Structure formats: C-alpha cells, structure tokens
C-alpha cells in the first residue's frame, strides 16, 4: 500500500485536459467519474477517490495537498473498569508513543479481557489481543503497565504479520517483544520494580 501511495501522483482539477485516460479500478471497484491521464509513460489518477478508497484521508490546506492515514483504535472488550484502564493505556501511547500507537491501530482490532489462564497474548496471525484475569486482578493492572503489555502483544501481531515467526526462534521473538516493553515502561517513567520484573522475564528468552 505504501509503495502504491508513493507512486501515486497528485492531479489538481485545473490541470486536467479534456481527454480521458484509462479507467480507474480500486480493489475491484470501478470509479466511472474519475478522470485519469496517460502522458509520457505516466498514468495520473485523481488523488482523492484513490487515497480514500485505500483508507487515507485527503485535504487541501495552506496551499498543500495533505494525505493522512485514518487510524482506528482497537475495540476494548470487558467490564467498565477494564475498558477504563485499557482506554487510559491507549491514551498514554497516543500522547507519548506515536509510533507504538500507530502500530497498535494498524495491527490490533480488539483488546479483550480473557477468562483463560496463562499468559497475556494475541491470536497468532490474528488481530486480537487478550489480557488475562490474572493481570486484571494484579497490582500491575494500571495504565502504564497495560500500555507496555499492549505494545508487547502488538509487536507479536507485527512479527506474525511480517512473517518473522517463520525465520526467528520463539526465544528471539519474545526477547524482541520484551525489549519494547522495557522501552515503553522507561519512556513512561514506570516504577523501577516494574521495569526490573520485565528485564527478568526478558532474560529467560535471551537468544544464545
Ligand atoms: Zn510475548
């Protein structure tokens, strides 16, 4: 999608000649009213319908065409206290960790309170993150720690999304994810005991 966007060329309406170019089809849908131009080996397409069709917004402001990606925060599934704390955790990322926030919006659809035992996790290959009742009931269920946990599971979702799970060992995947936890906790000024706990967990997965 990014490569396609880079290849896309802006066309302003006053620059359009009266002749029409090739049909514009985006994700299988024909845009019959879209004016395209084929000229000097280049195809020019109107930026607005094209960008909007692939999830971007377009604006014309201060003499510039601005294109930005629509971000959709994950849906939070659980009781009201769960929703409140997870919402605050996402807010911390939105305000302090824009890269992690964008990744979260791009790779995770839902964050859910899970009644299953075991580790917090994500649906391998999927876009769901699960936080356990064990975390919910612990003194770590505060926005800063939940933010780090969400980032950890987002990293796993990205590892699967990019196929790193096929070329990296389980330990290397975990080591990398815990590294992001530590960064987030440090950036958000988490208490030292919390950071130390994650460092201990990370060391269990240290690749040889
Ligand atoms: Zn993990």
From TrEMBL:
Q: Which UniProt keywords apply?
A: Signal
| Signal peptide from the UniProt entry | 1-20
Under which name does UniProt file this protein? Answer: Copper amine oxidase-like N-terminal domain-containing protein
According to its UniProt entry, this protein's organism is: Desulforamulus ruminis (strain ATCC 23193 / DSM 2154 / NCIMB 8452 / DL)
